[in-house]
Design goal:
By secondary structure, this protein is α+β, with helices and mostly antiparallel strands. The chain is built from eight helices and eleven strands. InterPro entries: DnaJ-like_C11_C, DnaJ_domain, DnaJ_domain_CS, J_dom_sf, Mito_inner_membrane_organizer.
Length: 334
Amino acid sequence: MLYHPDKHRDPELKRQAEQLFNLVHQAYEVLSDPQSRAIYDIYGKRGLDVEGWEVVERKRSPVEIREEFERLQREREERRLQQRTNPKGMISVGVDATDLFDRYEEDYEDVPGGGFPHVEINKMHISQSIEAPLTTSDTAVLSGSLSTHNGNGGGNINLLPSAVFYATVGPLVFYLAIQRLVIRPYVRSQKEQDLEKHRESSASDIARKRQEAESAVLLMQESVRRIIETEESKMGLIILNAWYGKFVTDNSQKHERAKVIDVTVPLQCLVKDSKLILTEATKSGLPGFYDPCVGEEKSLKLLYQFRGVMHQVLSPEGEALRIPKQSHRIDADT
């Protein structure tokens, strides 16, 4: 009803309402289909885009869909891990079958209880490898092998600039050390670079969502005015200020800045019967919201009034929120 074009006379508001109304229609198509809704309820919109989810049969229940989806996710993670570490292995076995070919046919008759030739394994060699990227152009190498021959055995460990081999306890321990001291710092650095690349590649998408959020706020103004009048008449719930995004704390680094957006109007629009209830879903998907700091930790900070008393709360991303609440009350001395 909020986004229905017929409810807005201003040509610009009507145009913006049509765009948002189409998004509502797309959401309805997903939520009105039992199978699509089951996927969405479990994993959100990304679940609808996962490679191979279409193999889910239409007759499957939500529980079966969840199991199938998790299986597909595991397969993707395994493929991603293999592409990153490029594991390789080799096992060779030496078999002594001399007795099978050297003996004459009449010799078998002289062997008590048998006639079967003697065949044995006299040597074995095992090696495995896994790659550990250090930089975009260099790859760390840990190599190991295990060999036995006629009852005697040996092994070796090698650190090379191209591949990592492990087959014994020693190479595995060494690899874990490399993992902690080299690979993990590299992965963290890569994540930061990937995050920056993601921001750059999704800049247009972020701008579009910001525009949609700003349009939604404009369309909410009249509804919010009526909601505030109703709440004020019964000393109900009034959202005084609300911010969403990344806040600067005492633990923040010196160069960090707050990255927040004002969401006072969108939250007041969600107030019903002097209550505001938010689920555990990401808040950036709420009407009038967008993500001001992609990939970073976010919170929702509210200053609100209920029964004429000031309240304040800081709600981390991904946590459900229900207000008003006694524990949010600000003492008069504060």
